[in-house]
Amino acid sequence: MARVTSTFRCTECGWTSIKWVGRCGECQTWGSVVDAAASTASQRGVAPIAVNADRAARPITEIAADSVAHWPSGIAEFDRVLGGGIVPGAAILLSGEPGVGKSTLLLEVASRAAAQGARVLYVTAEESASQVRLRAQRTGAMHPNLYLAAEVDLAVILGQIEQTDPQLVIVDSVQTVSSSLSDGIAGGPSQVREVASTLTRVSKDRGVPILIVGHVTKDGSIAGPRLLEHLVDVVCQFEGDRQTALRFVRAQKNRFGPTDEVGCFEMTGDGIAEVPDPSGLFMSRGGAPVSGTCITISMEGRRALPVEIQALIVGSSTPQPRRVVNGVDSSRVAMLLAVLERRAGIRLGDADVYVSTVGGIKITEPGADLAIALALASASREKSYPHTLAAIGEISLAGEIRPVASAKQRASEARRLGFTQLVDAESGHLREALRLAFGAASSDRDRELDAAF
Fold it and tell me: Which residues are annotated as a binding site for ATP?
């Protein structure tokens, strides 16, 4: 008899092996290698079946174009990210780090939907029902239309859906629910795939939207197989530093709306609150202008936000000067320090440099380069800019200021907030931008700065 050999395949990247291993040799994912023969055995010998008239393929021109109807969840910032609201029959995945506030947000969504008359089923697989009830009482999320169940078995959860017949289902979280039809422990790739696919199929068959909570790994990706992101209709990322109260919800995938919207929230003692106009969260409210600060207009999705960049320059007491940043890219700050020294004559190589944003926001786009450079120059010269000045632009290694995306929207938002002096790509070069900025802040005794640049 011929010897039967098994082939094992990675569910993440498709890497194959003749023996089982705990970690994929290609993508280095743990627990993703499964027996390929078991998954393909059911596909052998599949015979075609006759298709009735109701399921027969039709020309695309004969398919009715039904409009996707969104119904508002009651939280405007969450609806903004979803593209107008929750779509019936949609599977929505909300991912984020543990403890960032995902359960608090979805409990608020459940209470708002229940207050509108919808029957909501909240399934908690991580906490007990009494724990969720205490949090709901603290945040004011109590409502008789909100049904609560503490279950970890997928079959029991499906039975709860059949019995309750809800208009909205929330499962918290997919990594703690298990199915008897799949091998492995809860949270493993096979279990997460089985649970997510079953819940997605139920949402499509019953026309009920299901919100699924998913945790992320240390590198920020969703825990479990990447197939999980392809199974659902919407993938939202819940971001925020647990040391600050500000939270962001971003849409990474949305079949019913845009993927460049951002919702702003603030964690309070009474739960989570919307921040419809976050323009004042990322700026200090001091009276007189302070040296080492500059305002930029950053884009968070489609929303333009004013962000204050702060810089501090002090003499270094160590052979290796410190470079400490918070909220900005450290490598970008190092590049800007080199450009300032080479192209503008501002030498900071022997000084400790500290750069930070106000409010805990993180800026990764290059549009904040000019504001960082102006803040560093202001800190080195101990000269402050007026409150009406803002800077927008990307700086090249040659010192040229390049235009950035959504320049008109940024400029419009700057004018709306009272920034009448805008330093941007029209300056052409970093030296000219420094002249304009210091010219706006200079007095009669400060004219010697022009000679320095």
Answer: 96-103
